Amino acid sequence: MRQMTIRLLVLLLPILSPSAWSSQARDARMPAHSVLTLQLLDHVPLRVGQPVRAELIYPVYLGEALIIPKQTILTGTIIALRPDREKRMRSRFNLDFTPFRTPVVRFTQITLTGGALPIETDAVTDGATIARFTRSPPRKQQSFIRREFDSAIHLVGDGVVFFTARGRGDRLLQLAYHQLPWHPQRIDRGTTWAVETAKPFTVPESAMLQADAAEGLCDDSLKESTALWTLEATLIDAISSATAKPGQSVHAEVAVPIFNDDHTLAVPQGAILTGTISEALPSRRFGRSGTLHFAFHQIEFPSGAWRPITLNLAGGDSATWQKLDVDSEGEVKPTPQDKIVVPFLLLGLAAAPLSPDPDDTNEFVKNGAASNSLGLPGFVAGIAVNSLELSAGFGFYGASLSIYDRWIKRGADVSFPRNTRVILQTDVRSETAAGREAKPGKNKRLNEVLPKQNRVSPADGQ
Predict the structure, then answer these.
(1) By three-state DSSP, how is residue 22 classified?
(2) What is the fold of 28-196?
(3) pTM of the prediction?
(4) Residues of the chain with CATH 2.40.128
(5) Could you read off the pLDDT of 235-269 as tens digits, one per residue?
């Protein structure tokens, strides 16, 4: 009996020891539905079962602690391919018969300090290369001619970057592929997904310590003491100018904690922001784009306390095919698309074969340039038939498609998918007024409106 007791104590000693309890207490348990924003590291062929490898582009916090640093590697696979019928239909008009598909991706492993651990995320399909848009400075209303001139300058600049920036060999190869009536498909390097964890996930203490050393909780970006505070948050609700209505509620979750000057916590990760949509105009025919305007007016802490606050949109992430502009008032619109340069260029190329030219070489070049508006099939047909009328017809067909896209069809809507990262800034005038009403004569700073967490209680929020 004594031997059995001794053996039992030996087995229980690692569990009963204070060091084991303290180690377990320091392990972080991420709840389900935690958001991880991942960016693909390499081009991936579009095949079911194909491995994918991505890195975290934003660090993950829990409360005030950094749990997972950015550039952490996650791996997964393509689990399915879904037909993209809308893209297939559009491509048919350009004689592109590629069976476009949308990949479904799931990540199953995360590599932390000390090794790889299993992780389960929800399947995602909305991958896209993203770019950060920021608030534009106030500027005078531009005329139509001035806007088109600026669009032409940007178009030329984009062309120069396309042929000179790093990776131009791959871009030229993809350009050649897209001239074919069928081309291989892939997920491009830089494609980004905002995935949610399907189950709770425990991060070991050893990985957290290394993460703290790598990132640091006292980053200068978290010690702002000015009146204008910036919050990074992820949208809980998907928002689109096509479906949103004025007065509709919108919610977001604070993604990065904010600290006071004395390094005490002011706004923890996980605080919930509540706001409303003040303006939502859907896109319309003849290229008229949609507009969206929303702001947040309340913050709720994990303790249950809440405070009034005014936060306007200052920037965020958007797909590169959906370039957005946000003005000084927080109103978001798609970046204006050029409506003159490309259509007139295509019309000039289409009309070139109809001008008489005794030089057969020039006719060959004109026929090829005009018919190339439909890619390789149009180019081959225009050269093989050697008909000025046919080449010009192909050219005018391509120009008409460009005119339809820019002048006739419905414009672009402003869309923010769920879990989009947004940058929010306080309205200095509103916060100053709030501080004046609360305590006259006090310093009008945001940390007076948003007190330290240990000073916040549900009773204070009544």
Answers:
(1) helix
(2) Lipocalin (2.40.128)
(3) 0.75
(4) 28-196, 218-337+412-455
(5) 999 999 989 999 999 999 999 988 877 777 888 88
